């Protein structure tokens, strides 16, 4: 790439917080960013060249974005892969990761089958189309089990625990559509690896420990507080996952460390991921810079970590949707090596991701305790 002003343009489908942080990472690389999002003045708008207002299946918007861009990518799985593929072929603008990868990821059952066929270790799973299917599957997998919507689920939405036979009917009604059921994994901890595929190269960021509550990510600890053998196995599984994907970019790979030290794949996101936000301060190259490098065909940056890092999400704590007004942020701004990331969302509601706080230092346990104290000093009420 020859650097010019303006530089090459990356078009991003989606303009939420991930699009915002991609915009922040693009400028030092000499890249321009355009985003397409249905919400006017979306979170990414203040830090990118322009926003196109249009839906995630809007072919006219996608085509406009492609015609104004040198490369296309996406920061949300709601992007329509068929439209992306068609527009890319018509305009000659490459899409990364590949639309076929997005198509695979969007359906959790297709995703699991693809990875199991590739030899990636996954929990036992079954397709479910009815309450009778679920009962039969649970006879094999045992109770409790986890019923998942095949499409559209995120942050715990679309996941329903099935505690016993009496819960089967309600679980199927809650999902209200095509589903799959997985065995309930007895895990020691949840892990994540931000894997990256470049132009003929691949790499992975340090293994991260992810802490969830009500299936929503609350904190990330890097490096993970796991043994060297477990971290090495997690990286190996992440590399196997990358080999099963098509196209360039960063992939959020969520894993379980089982109680006997094995690694099982949970899910994949074909984009930067919440569990990798810590890399902005914690690594020499952030996941957002890495994704842009990959999409634009540039050499990947180093994934080496600078120092132990903890990231904690700022979630809405209000009973009803209301204008977003955060208080208590002075405690973060006054704390050495603490970093506030505000996503610029205009409204807050309960458990909505509004930002995150990153803290760097020496001792992961102490960092986690301090990060929680800083987060707990924030409120939207």
From TrEMBL:
The keyword Nucleotide-binding applies. Its EC number is 6.3.4.18. Keywords: ATP-binding, Decarboxylase, Ligase, Lyase, Magnesium, Nucleotide-binding, Purine biosynthesis. Residues 112-296 form the ATP-grasp domain. It catalyses: 5-amino-1-(5-phospho-beta-D-ribosyl)imidazole + hydrogencarbonate + ATP = 5-carboxyamino-1-(5-phospho-D-ribosyl)imidazole + ADP + phosphate + 2 H(+). Pathway: Purine metabolism; IMP biosynthesis via de novo pathway; 5-amino-1-(5-phospho-D-ribosyl)imidazole-4-carboxylate from 5-amino-1-(5-phospho-D-ribosyl)imidazole (N5-CAIR route): step 1/2. PANTHER family: PHOSPHORIBOSYLAMINOIMIDAZOLE CARBOXYLASE, PURINE BIOSYNTHESIS PROTEIN 6/7, PUR6/7. Catalyzes the ATP-dependent conversion of 5-aminoimidazole ribonucleotide (AIR) and HCO(3)- to N5-carboxyaminoimidazole ribonucleotide (N5-CAIR). Homodimer. This is N5-carboxyaminoimidazole ribonucleotide synthase. It comes from Haloarcula salina. The gene is purK.
